[in-house]
Write a structure and sequence with these properties.
Spore Coat Polysaccharide Biosynthesis Protein SpsA, Chain A, 2 domains, 11 strands
Length: about 350
């Protein structure tokens, strides 16, 4: 005997006694149809608009491929985009390569910076030039796989900042003990002192909301700028996400120095420690933007007071006095409207 086909009209909810053989008694239950009505379609999310920011310093050999790969990745995932290349005082033909690409690449701009290379200063100069509400930061060495951008865009719906975490290839050689010790030292500076809960603070691939820099002004001129941005974002209660990123090859990972910025073999340098100390004791914070206010970050830099002087003290009393100074400073900033 053939089973009769169910129609939507035969599948109305009904309220009647359930005959379950006396197991649970006479209980009224609502029976639903095995054929459920189609759920309403989810609203389509418009593709984002992104400014791609490429940091370059003496990267003539990889500059053109880096522009092409970033352009292709953004073309597939965005409604509109632009690419800013900040040339940090390169002495090779990096700027010439970018100028040649200007005619063929629509939406490409070059920002040239004179003086000695300074990663933080280059970011401080380039970030205000971003036009679109999302900023994707990478570098010109073109070592990372940009297919991870899908995960960045997914987390950007809830996070203010999304940071990449570089995965290590299983087949690669072991890390040199000196490098490992240097990473541990840098992790202690960023995690123990500034409370940054990330394992790869200096990953070249990051995604920011542009309005993050309405409250954050970069003080550091060197490679500590990455940690400074994340530390201040955490201080303001911003949400930070993390996405795994793969290298194209483990040979590229092996060739990468610990600091992609200074091109030195160490992250823990005198400059890094000096900048970390300055950010900790005298952070520059910006007040909230007022409605209708433009160029807020360029006009309203406010330098906060440092913590209480503890010269001549030591041990627990010094630490407690330092903490009291930090709490007092936070209260003052909150009363003056610089903190929410």
């Amino acid at each position: 005997m053939e089973a009769a086909a169910l129609s939507p009209g035969d599948c109305e909810p009904t309220d009647r006694p359930l005959d379950d053989g006396g197991k649970t008694g006479d209980i009224n239950r609502v029976f639903m149809s095995p054929v459920f009505p189609a759920s309403p379609p989810e609203p389509e999310v418009a593709p984002p608009e992104i400014t791609g920011l490429i940091y370059a310093c003496n990267d003539e050999a990889t500059m053109r491929p880096a522009i092409e790969h970033l352009s292709q990745a953004l073309t597939d995932r965005t409604a509109a985009f632009e690419i800013l290349v900040v040339d940090d005082a390169s002495t090779d033909g990096t700027a010439a390569v970018v100028e040649e690409a200007l005619a063929a690449q629509e939406g490409l701009r070059l920002i040239r910076r004179d003086g000695p290379p300074a990663y933080g200063a280059a970011l401080r100069e380039a970030l205000p030039e971003a036009y679109f509400p999302l900023i994707l930061q990478t570098d010109a060495r073109d070592l990372l796989d940009l297919t991870a951008l899908d995960g960045f865009l997914e987390q950007a719906e809830e996070c203010h900042i999304v940071v990449g975490r570089r995965r290590r290839h299983r087949g690669r050689p072991a890390v040199h003990p000196r490098r490992r010790l240097d990473r541990v030292g840098y992790w202690l500076v960023t995690r123990a002192i500034f409370g940054i809960p990330l394992g790869d603070v200096n990953c070249p691939l990051k995604l920011y909301r542009r309005d993050v820099f309405d409250r954050i002004r970069i003080q550091s001129d060197g490679p500590f700028a990455d940690a400074e941005i994340l530390a201040k974002a955490g201080f303001f209660g911003m949400i930070i996400g993390e996405v795994p990123v793969e290298y194209r090859t483990w040979e590229a990972e092996r060739a990468l120095p610990l600091s992609r910025v200074t091109r030195h073999s160490s992250l823990v340098t005198r400059q890094t420690l000096r900048e970390a100390w300055r950010v900790f004791h005298r952070p520059v914070l910006l007040p909230p933007a007022q409605p209708g206010e433009e160029d807020h970050g360029a006009r309203c830099a406010v330098e906060a007071e440092g913590p209480t002087e503890i010269a001549g003290s030591n041990g627990r009393n010094a630490r407690e006095r330092d903490l009291r100074g930090i709490r007092a400073r936070a209260r003052r900033l909150r009363e003056e409207g610089y903190l929410a």
